[in-house]
Amino acid sequence: RGAPLAAFTRIADDPILERGAIAHPDLVVVADDTLLTEPAAQPDAGCDSHATLLINTHHDETDIRPLTAHGGRILTADFTTLALKMTQHLASLSTALGAAAACLAGLSLDALLAGLDHELAQTHLTASQHAANRELARASYARAQSWAKAQARPEDAHTPLPELAQVAFAPPAQAAPSIVAVGNSPARHTG
Which one, of 87, 101, 41, 107, lies nearest residue 68 by Cα? Predict the structure, then answer.
């Protein structure tokens, strides 16, 4: 629990030379459905009708769709319950979501498990915890196999750029926000 977090992964057959945020993603994984209504998070930013949103939630797509402006494909599944059932640890949610995303991106189960083994080898998990995460990855991958793969944006797809705001200069004493000001950190229930 805490502040919204965004991370980006690029997958391609060719060398990837671009780094940083992905302006127009093909697949977005939302680990907590409460982020859909969190103004600071904006998980569907940059998504157009080509993008797929995979949302970890116990709600179905018809309940989730009104919470987002996304007009494209929305997939929902309760990976939290699956992770807790199979590993007894919420930290393994990243394994579950990563496995589902790998399937939707078209990676093979063998490639997924090899990557998972590489990542888990660098942790302090016991052999049984490692095995439980592998089984969770298999179950999450199997769950995602019932969905069609995420589609890459067509090369000719055009997403209009947002209009830029003109901001007047103000000296730092007037313009710099205080991180300790009460109004900068609203208390919000998550999860």
Answer: 41
Residue 80: how many CB atoms within 10 A of its CB?
20
Query: How far from each other are the two terminal CA atoms of the chain, in whole angstroms?
Result: 8
Nearest to 135 by CA among 112, 119, 118: 112
Average pLDDT per consecutive 10 residues, the chain (191 residues; last block may be shorter): 77 85 91 90 88 96 94 96 96 96 96 96 94 98 96 72 71 67 58 54
Q: What SS3 state is found at 56? A: strand
Number of residues that this document lists for the chain: 191
Query: What is the pTM (predicted TM-score) of this model?
Result: 0.80
> Are 6 and 30 contacting, i.e. CB atoms less than 8 angstroms apart?
no
Burial 48-78 (b: 16+ CB within 10 A, else e): bebbbbbbbbeeeeeebbebbebeebbbbbb
